UniProtKB/TrEMBL annotation:
<dbReference type="Pfam" id="PF12680">
    <property type="entry name" value="SnoaL_2"/>
</dbReference>
<dbReference type="InterPro" id="IPR032710">
    <property type="entry name" value="NTF2-like_dom_sf"/>
</dbReference>
<feature type="domain" description="SnoaL-like">
    <location>
        <begin position="23"/>
        <end position="114"/>
    </location>
</feature>
<dbReference type="InterPro" id="IPR037401">
    <property type="entry name" value="SnoaL-like"/>
</dbReference>
<protein>
    <recommendedName>
        <fullName>SnoaL-like domain-containing protein</fullName>
    </recommendedName>
</protein>
Length: 130
């Protein structure tokens, strides 16, 4: 699970090419994966279902934040208990890589991600939402 979680950050959310990301996602996520985003995006909790829609949403967010890079947070926090994983990450430009801090809670089924939730831990005030 830890390997999948690291790839989730590095090879999926960190990948800028949509086709490459989509290919990587095939082995990591169930086809009907569900991504639940926090309410600050639209005022309502956004629910994205399916690998293709998750991939397209990641691309949309990358386009919204050009020059930003996702990395594991400074502590590299990854935790696993039974079929639940938690991975902390940060997002920002190279000069301030921790501008945004968040974590993903990942629910695994048969070794692949079935669903995941985003929780923001640090957001700059006045930050435009994706």
């Amino acid at each position: 699970m830890r390997k999948v979680m690291n790839m989730h950050i590095e090879k999926v959310f960190g990948e800028t090419d949509e086709a490459t990301r989509g290919k990587t996602m095939e082995s990591l996520y169930h086809e009907d994966v569900t991504w639940l985003q926090p309410a600050e995006y639209s005022g309502d909790q956004a629910i994205i279902r399916g690998r293709d829609y998750v991939n397209a949403t990641i691309q949309k967010e990358q386009n919204h934040f050009p020059g930003f890079f996702i990395t594991h947070d400074n502590e590299g926090y990854v935790a696993v208990t039974q079929n639940l994983g938690i991975v902390h990450w940060q997002l920002g430009p190279r000069e301030q890589p921790d501008m945004i801090k968040a974590c993903h809670y990942l629910l695994f089924e048969d070794g692949r991600i079935k669903a995941f939730w985003t929780t923001h831990l640090k957001m700059p005030t006045g930050q435009p939402s994706a």
